[in-house]
Amino acid sequence: MPSDIEVVLRPTRRVVVLGYDERELQNLLYCAITYGVNRLFWVDGYLMCVEVYEESFKREMDDGVFFVSHVCYARFPRYQKVIEVERGAQLPIVNASDMCMLRAILRAVLAKEQAVDVRLGSGDVT
């Protein structure tokens, strides 16, 4: 076995989220099941549906930038492995609280939402 194998660790440094929405839980679930999402992510009290196109992975390898087309999220205080959407339709939920990229995306989205709330609360709508 060769002992001179070079291993290069190149974690994602930049994520671009093209859109995001806070959703009512039932709306998020119904949208996910009808869109064909095969799992949702739970991060620190939020349920997230993260839409990524195949081209994003190639772009990440070529340019070092990972594009997420859309993130929908809803408050979901307690983790559970599976959630029933309706009439027996279920979606698995992955506890991703220990995944750096998903935590970073959630933090960025929540920070942006709080900034918007502050601006709207002050009467500034622009």
Could you explain how this protein is built, in words?
The structure is a single chain. 15% of the residues are buried. Strand 3 and strand 4 form a beta hairpin. This protein is an alpha/beta fold and 126 residues long. 34% of the residues lie in helices and 31% in strands. It is globular. The termini are far apart. Strands 2-6-4-3-8-7 form a six-stranded mixed β-sheet. Strands 1-5 form a two-stranded parallel ribbon. The protein has one domain.
CA-CA gap between termini: 63 Å
* Number of distinct beta strands: 8
Task: Return the string of H and E elements.
Answer: EEHEEHEEEEH
Structural class: alpha/beta
Bin the helical content.
Answer: 25-40%
Quick overview:
Helices cover 34% and strands 31% of the residues. The chain has helices at 25-35, 54-63, 100-121; strands spanning 14-17, 20-22, 40-43, 46-51, 65-68, 70-75, 82-86, 89-95. The strands form 2 sheets. It has a 6-stranded mixed sheet with strand order 2-6-4-3-8-7. A two-stranded parallel ribbon has the order 1-5.
Descriptive terms for the model:
alpha/beta, 6-stranded mixed sheet, 3 helices, 8 strands, 34% helix, globular
Architecture blueprint of SSEs:
Layout: E1 14-17, E2 20-22, H1 25-35, E3 40-43, E4 46-51, H2 54-63, E5 65-68, E6 70-75, E7 82-86, E8 89-95, H3 100-121
Parallel strand pairs: 1-5, 2-6, 3-8
Antiparallel strand pairs: 3-4, 4-6, 7-8
